[in-house]
């Protein structure tokens, strides 16, 4: 089969198994549930703006109470029927912002997941639809929304570690949606090259599509 094959949503989900592991490794131990009681709720909000000229937009809200997070987001303009990994990114050494073209280190005018890590940090929370939400589930594509009609309306209560919860309360965490149909042909393909996370995958399957800093 031609190397520049088009991936269906099901094939992309099956192949995405190793796609985001590199971006989440710095926070891999964040899955244990540490609940801090009697902590005042802190509300944070983000306007999700497109990256990579994806056309994706939306809004997000995260309320932190101790290490418990109530997460909501709405997004439109997504590739319909395709898996879109969505995470809260946070790292103490990150810039706590969305990436820009200055982060495009190879000069191809497209931002990859790894190029964005210095800005938004590694995966801290995996916003799956069910089951585990730790960085260990950053690859659980079968549990991420598939964007029916190109839209997602998500709400879930999740748990995280103390460092990430503190980052959310400080306004340093970033919500990122992944998956970009660069050539607008209705599927992930190799038109934009290989993923910087896994050469078996198209860059379209892993590149960031939208981003928003969760400010108070």
Explain what you see.
With 216 residues, the protein is α+β, with helices and mostly antiparallel strands. Helix content is 15%, strand content 27%. It is built from 5 helices and 10 strands, in the order E-H-H-E-E-E-E-H-E-E-H-E-E-H-E. It has helices at 9-15, 21-24, 113-120, 162-170, 203-206, and strands at residues 6-7, 42-50, 57-65, 68-76, 86-89, 123-126, 151-159, 174-178, 188-189, 208-213. An 8-stranded antiparallel β-sheet has the order 6-5-8-10-2-3-4-7. A two-stranded antiparallel sheet has the order 1-9. A hairpin with a 2-residue loop joins strand 3 (57-65) and strand 4 (68-76). The radius of gyration is 16 Å and the shape is globular.
Describe, in short, the structure shown.
The protein is an alpha+beta fold.
Topology:
Blueprint: E1 6-7, H1 9-15, H2 21-24, E2 42-50, E3 57-65, E4 68-76, E5 86-89, H3 113-120, E6 123-126, E7 151-159, H4 162-170, E8 174-178, E9 188-189, H5 203-206, E10 208-213
Antiparallel strand pairs: 1-9, 2-3, 2-10, 3-4, 4-7, 5-6, 5-8, 8-10
Radius of gyration: 16 Å
Poorly predicted sequence stretches spanning 5 or more consecutive residues: 1-38
Report the sheet-strand fraction.
25-35%
Order of helices and strands: EHHEEEEHEEHEEHE
Globally, the shape reads globular
Which descriptors would you attach to this protein?
disordered N terminus, alpha+beta, eight-stranded antiparallel beta sheet, 216 residues, 5 helices, globular, two-stranded antiparallel ribbon
